[in-house]
Amino acid sequence: MHPGIALGCLIAETAMHITAQQILVFVGKAAHSIQTQRDYLTDLDAAIGDADHGINLDRGFSAVLIRLPDVADQDIGTILKTVGTTLVSTIGGASGPLYGTAFLRAGMTVAGRFTLSPEELVVALEAAMLGIQTRGKSMRGEKTMLDALAPAIDTLKATLASGDDLPIALCKSVNACETGMRSTIPMLATKGRASYLGERSIGHQDPGATSMFLLAQALLDTLDT
Amino acid sequence: MHPGIALGCLIAETAMHITAQQILVFVGKAAHSIQTQRDYLTDLDAAIGDADHGINLDRGFSAVLIRLPDVADQDIGTILKTVGTTLVSTIGGASGPLYGTAFLRAGMTVAGRFTLSPEELVVALEAAMLGIQTRGKSMRGEKTMLDALAPAIDTLKATLASGDDLPIALCKSVNACETGMRSTIPMLATKGRASYLGERSIGHQDPGATSMFLLAQALLDTLDT
Amino acid sequence: MKKLINTPDHLLHDALAGLAAAHGDILTVRFNPDLVVRNDAPVANKVALIAGGGAGHEPLHTGFVGRGMLDAACPGAIFTAPVPDQIFAATKSVHSGQGVLYLVKNYTGDTLNFEFAAEMAELADIEVATVLIHDDVAVQDSLYTAGRRGVGLTLLLEKIVGAAAEAGADLATCQQLAAQISAHGRSMGMALTSCTVPHHGKPTFELPADEFELGIGIHGEPGRQRAKMASAAAIAEQLALPIIADLPFQAGDEVLALVNGMGATPLIELYVMYNELRQILNGHGITITRRLVGNYITALDMAGCSFTLLKLDPQLTTLWDAPVCTPALRWGV
Amino acid sequence: MKKLINTPDHLLHDALAGLAAAHGDILTVRFNPDLVVRNDAPVANKVALIAGGGAGHEPLHTGFVGRGMLDAACPGAIFTAPVPDQIFAATKSVHSGQGVLYLVKNYTGDTLNFEFAAEMAELADIEVATVLIHDDVAVQDSLYTAGRRGVGLTLLLEKIVGAAAEAGADLATCQQLAAQISAHGRSMGMALTSCTVPHHGKPTFELPADEFELGIGIHGEPGRQRAKMASAAAIAEQLALPIIADLPFQAGDEVLALVNGMGATPLIELYVMYNELRQILNGHGITITRRLVGNYITALDMAGCSFTLLKLDPQLTTLWDAPVCTPALRWGV
Ligand SMILES: Nc1ncnc2c1ncn2[C@@H]1O[C@H](COP(=O)(O)OP(=O)(O)O)[C@@H](O)[C@H]1O
Ligand SMILES: Nc1ncnc2c1ncn2[C@@H]1O[C@H](COP(=O)(O)OP(=O)(O)O)[C@@H](O)[C@H]1O
Ligand SMILES: [Mg+2]
Ligand SMILES: [Mg+2]
Ligand SMILES: [Mg+2]
Ligand SMILES: [Mg+2]
């Protein structure tokens, strides 16, 4: 039930742009991965939360799959905003508004676009992160999904700046995301439900950081095929 | 926690009468035995009843022990009636009125007496049994305390009639009581709480028959010392 | 065994002390013998109602003492019928000269102890009548049993006869009404887990994770049979169909339905069961016109539920709707 | 996992259908999005009160919809805050032009979703105010937590503000009253067992037979610490003393005390706990003038209890005593 480790960065040369079609594939893969890891995510949440994170995200992404055909020929902004609003209106809990906001804000930065350059991807991701931070009044180091997302974005930016291709850069970024996810284990939670546990939150991997990693992996998988 | 098997009938010659003093000793021994076997009786009741028989009788006999000094110099009838009323007013449940009535009715047959002949003992025991049958609207073979008491009385009468001394007769009677107790195991209960179980009552020893055997044993022990 | 108690020996006393402190506006608790008595008892010109039974079924009976329901309750030790002294003391406390009605669940212990008490009352020249409640269809009333157990119907009977007594019905009328309710009410229960009798310290029976007990009483006794765990809908059928068939309830009947938790069953599950019951009754053309959903007649910490159906007529409905003011049942005031 | 349910996916729907069928005289249930709305909503010239939160805490909140309490409740999935669409739909259903007050337990999920809904209401020109309930002294309100959780006080706040709204108080007054209640109420809870989230299928945490969790919330989360199993008196101290110290409650105070079961705790144990609480407060010169004992704010099938104390003044007492007519709380009517 443990999600696979990110692949080594042995990616062939591929296109430098992400298409709307790929975004649809990404969302589908993300939904599939969440469903597969549903119980694992819920078990993680049982340890330091209320045993529903996998259930919550699976409910949301299953609803997204139903909505997806409606926007199959739309621009990336529309697709992402549809994902966002669907997540907001079907998940509830903490993760619903947070992931929902992330997709909504990302979508707003790419309204009308059918392809994204690596730079546009970074902007979208940064908007997503800012959305989570603003809604959640949270920052890195508080044992949340941000601890997986933030290092992923940092690495993506750095490796793109150093001249890496998008697939390579994304691969390195997902590795950073995984490291970030694992970094939540020794952390003391200061946001979300796990913060009620105080010291007892230490030693457990954050479920939201884990689902964030699954999403990152789904994006990498998409570009990789 | 299993009550000891009745001793083999290797009893020395002793007096042919039971004294008020011995009745007091008997009641004390009975209370002690019930207390010792409290959990065993309750376990038996858990299997086919409501897990309180040992608790109930222990509560009753503990109260009896407190009342006993008040009647230390009284006649046997008074002692037995005091035991009976105390059991009635402290046990509750089915066993309270049944054991209480048994002691009350026995006591009524020996009012004013300070010693009992074997024949008087038989009369008292028969009155006790009739009291249980009348209150309980029950008879032998229904998987109750009667299945231990009835064969004990039958044997006591028969062996006395055949010329046995009281201690010998009582020893044989207690053996019959034990056999009667065990005979409840294969029985289908048709009275009391166990009757609700229908066929599922089969295969379990009746708690009330077991406590009846403990009382019989206490009487034997008394005459035996 | 983990329970919120001090010691098994003190459980009943502590709980009664808590009840007294919480509901001193309605009732008074006396100890040795233990009694719960309506504050304004004896109520002049009113038949007095007394119920009793082993503790461990809370809120039954102690939580149903008050205006429009019981005049007194006699709690025995856990799962142990009260002793006659208690019942007689209650009788003396509440009788106002119009007679006293004992509402007795049909168990050997309860009937015997109330019988004893009735004999004591007779000697004291207090008029007493007794009503036996025996609504559990899981037990056949035959030569081979102690007769049907009194379970869920007890609460409905206490409420309805309580309302009649409050309205001035005489002893014979109350007794007749109780008989009518007994004739028209049936119950059946099931358990997901056993309960733990505090003095015993361990569960009365062990149930595998995939089985439940069907046809249980309210004392943690095992039921008539074990069945494979099933959906709420399937379990509801196993409870409802024997009830319907037994009376029988028929198309066109209007009923009061009680969906009762056994003590450890959360309300969310009881509403699921109510929903199933309602659909089954619908299918039989039977209409629920009054209902009660909650943990009312419990078996300590047992998980499970029971259904009770009582066929209503306009008189019973009016009496059910009449004001009641007790710790556990309250409306109209 | 043994529960009286059909499937985890249908649990909430079935329970709501049962609630609707049982209490159609008081409330209406709508599905997709799921809402429980007072039958006479919108009530003209009345501030409307909406509460919501994950299901699994029954009777909270759905059982508190009705006259004198909530206008609507929005049940989310089990232990999952409701989605904004639900809350917004409820808002449109119950607002009568006098404004809508959201009563929100302080959890990240609840605050975020109600925030979203408030934004939607603002766009629709409906005046909305929000009150956060955060009474759990087990959690320190510091930079290192999501702030104190909303637990037992929720019910008291819903009742009292509900009475004020029913009596015609305007939005600002209701909000102020809620703030006053928040300022004067504190809670703490403990668990003997975890609960089992139906979709998860196993207990959220495992507790050894001789330990309990102290400082739990109402979602089956583990508490702040584990403690060795102890007597009711000792556990009551561990709950009551932090509550008393926190506000602090002082000699001479009059309080409303809620002794609340977590869903699987039988009433007999709750009365024992009430008795202990009363004695502890007595020792501090604090008097309980109103109280409630029962399973009101639950965590599915968790065994355990919580204490809530609210300092009363004559106004709060009068509002508490005012008539209320909901499935789970009813008096004066
Ligand atoms: N303030 C916050 N900022 C960012 N992420 C958060 C915040 N609060 C909670 N989270 C994330 O949400 C996850 C929990 O989501 P979920 O279990 O679905 O919601 P809930 O806590 O309402 O049950 C946590 O593991 C954490 O990563
Ligand atoms: N009608 C009866 N006649 C004779 N003995 C009976 C009758 N009913 C029950 N008993 C005896 O009482 C015993 C149960 O006693 P106890 O557990 O103390 O009472 P309760 O059944 O009320 O819990 C049974 O084991 C049986 O021997
Ligand atoms: Mg969660
Ligand atoms: Mg018994
Ligand atoms: Mg008993
Ligand atoms: Mg949640």
Automatic annotation (TrEMBL), chains C, D:
Keywords: Glycerol metabolism, Kinase, Transferase. PROSITE patterns: DHAK. GO terms for molecular function: glycerone kinase activity; phosphoenolpyruvate-glycerone phosphotransferase activity. One of its GO terms (biological process) is glycerol catabolic process. GO terms for cellular component: cytosol. The keyword Kinase applies. Residues 7-331 form the DhaK domain. InterPro entries: DhaK_1, DhaK_dom, Dihydroxyacetone_Kinase. PANTHER family: TRIOKINASE/FMN CYCLASE, TRIOKINASE_FMN CYCLASE. Homodimer. The dihydroxyacetone kinase complex is composed of a homodimer of DhaM, a homodimer of DhaK and the subunit DhaL. This is phosphoenolpyruvate--glycerone phosphotransferase. It comes from Candidatus Viridilinea halotolerans. The lineage of its organism: Bacteria, Bacillati, Chloroflexota, Chloroflexia, Chloroflexales. The gene is dhaK.
